[in-house]
Amino acid sequence: MFVQACNAFSENTVLLPDGEGGVVVFDPGFSSAQEWEWFDALLDEHGLVPKAVWLTHAHLDHVMGCHGMHKRYGLRPRLHSLDRPTYEMAHWAAERYGVALDPLPECEDQDFVDGEQLELGQLNLTVRHTPGHAPGHVVFVDDRHARVIGGDVLFQGSIGRTDLPGGDPDQLAASIENALYSLPDHYTVVPGHGSATTIGVEKAGNPFVNAAGTGMLQRK
Ligand SMILES: [Zn+2]
Ligand SMILES: [Zn+2]
């Protein structure tokens, strides 16, 4: 697995090799020549060919490389149907934040659904719908390697913001409790921003949502 913080929002673009020379690109945030050079060098060094673009959600910072992934490799992103409106809004968000966004390609026709098993090469991931930060947010659970591609749901010592369109604090807390804290403690969470963490560490000490129910988002 490779992680590169990209663009003005320090968004983690995650690359998961499929064990057969392919690589899945999660949330491509490449926005500059240097970031594409890093990607090219990594593909060269490890002999990898991009096979799929899978989105945890479609906020601006997670889709900035979608144009390039389509132009270079003919890959269209897959996402959850409830985040298609978020994808459509990315250009509006780019204007609002004053950053450049190349025209986005059409998404793949087949949207992710909760519980879906994704198989590609030797990868086997489970999709879990985790709304609250974005309505169609999903995480990808890799049981074989005890890790989760988590997007902007649960961060090291923090959680995703809920003040953007379609955000909902109660939903976010429920998503974390149901889809993430139900996983074994040793599972690593690779989030959309910042450092990786584990389910056990966040369950014990996350100040917003924790297993004891004393988090700031849980106190009513
Ligand atoms: Zn986001
Ligand atoms: Zn983000």
Structural overview:
By secondary structure, the protein is an alpha+beta fold. It is globular, with a radius of gyration of 16 Å. It has helices spanning 33-46, 60-63, 66-73, 84-97, 169-180, 199-205; strands at 2-6, 11-17, 22-26, 49-54, 77-78, 117-120, 123-129, 138-142, 147-151, 154-155, 158-159, 188-191, 197-198. The chain has one domain (2-205): Ribonuclease Z/Hydroxyacylglutathione hydrolase-like (Metallo-beta-lactamase, Chain A, 4-Layer Sandwich). The strands form 3 sheets. A 6-stranded mixed β-sheet has the order 6-7-8-9-12-13. Strands 1-2-3-4-5 form a 5-stranded mixed β-sheet. Bound molecules: zinc ion (2 copies). One zinc ion binds at residues 9, 11, 59, 61-62, 152, 192-193.
The largest sheet, given as strand count, sense and whether it forms a barrel, is: 6 strands, mixed
Total DSSP E strands: 13
The helix-and-strand class reads alpha+beta
Distance between the termini: 39 Å
Assign the CATH topology: Metallo-beta-lactamase, Chain A
What's the helix-strand series?
Answer: EEEHEHHEHEEEEEEHEEH
Judging from the principal axes of the Cα atoms, what is the shape? Answer: globular
In round numbers, the mean pLDDT is 97
